[in-house]
Amino acid sequence: MRMFVMNIFHVVHLTDIYFIILILKRFHMSIVAILCI
């Protein structure tokens, strides 16, 4: 049971990191667009 819970936390953590990276990429694109204008 304990391992199962740890696995869930690990997966959630990985998706969290992926989500943060996506947001940063989108934010980065916005900054580049603003700088270009």
Structural class: mainly alpha
Give helix and strand order, one letter per element, not per position: H
Largest sheet: none
The number of helical segments is: 1
Amino- and carboxy-terminal Cα gap: 55 Å
Q: What helical percentage do the residues reach? A: over 70%
Average of the residue pLDDT scores: 83
Question: What general form does the structure show?
Answer: rod-shaped
Beta fraction: under 5%
Low-confidence stretches: none
Number of strands: 0
Q: Quickly count the domains.
A: 1
Radius of gyration based on Cα positions: 16 Å
Summarize this structure as a short list of keywords or feature phrases:
membrane, transmembrane helix, transmembrane, 37 residues, mainly alpha
Structural summary, described in words:
Keywords: Membrane, Transmembrane, Transmembrane helix. The chain crosses the membrane at residues 6-24. This protein has 37 residues and is an all-alpha fold. The protein has one domain (10-36). It has one helix at residues 2-36. The radius of gyration is 16 Å and the shape is rod-shaped. The model has no long low-confidence stretch (mean pLDDT 83).
Short characterization:
The protein is mostly helical and 37 residues long. The chain has one helix at 2-36.
Break the fold down into its secondary structure elements and pairings.
Elements: H1 2-36
Keywords: Membrane, Transmembrane, Transmembrane helix
Transmembrane segments: 6-24
